[in-house]
Amino acid sequence: MTAVLFDVSAILSEVLRSNAGEAYNMITIPDRTEAAEYYFTYIDQVPTGDVCQVLEGQLADTLALFRGISGDRSLYRYAPGKWSIRDVVNHLTDTERLFVFRAFWFARGFDTPLPSFDQNVAAAAAGADHRSWESLVEEFRAVRAATVTFFRSLPPDVWARRGVASGNPFTVRALAYVAAGHVIHHTNILRARYLQPQQPAQ
After folding, report:
1. pTM above threshold 0.90
2. By the 8 A CB rule, do 55 and 180 touch?
């Protein structure tokens, strides 16, 4: 009898896990009420499907792009006053931390509005050009891995929770899409403005 009860319990647990997974896989692209219109610059670039799979798959593609850039090339700026490639990668890491912290705050039930973020202040303080290129790439890898782990840990009902950051509304779901779309946006800029063959390295 004990063995039978154990088997039934195991089956029920598996069914619950399966149902939770089905609910999770039903997550769709955020609608226009889930973030300020500005953030759809990023959200609209994310392909349909499981956003956690997008975030995870994006890591390999982005690392391949970064690892194809030499240390010397990573100091390149396509115009005076523009960020270097190192600045861009540091910015991706900084903002990913920011988006995930906002998602964490709202997912865990906090309703206190969060402050704004000035990317130029952060970039100036980071001093990315004085760090090794390898360390910046590795930091991005580690932060994105933590991002995927966090979003994969969320129960299905949490994705719709809302909060305010920088004076703008967000759902947890929108922030996952913003994280993915932000990387798409900036890697497209890297390819178009920084990595064209005719541009000499500085």
Report:
1. no
2. yes
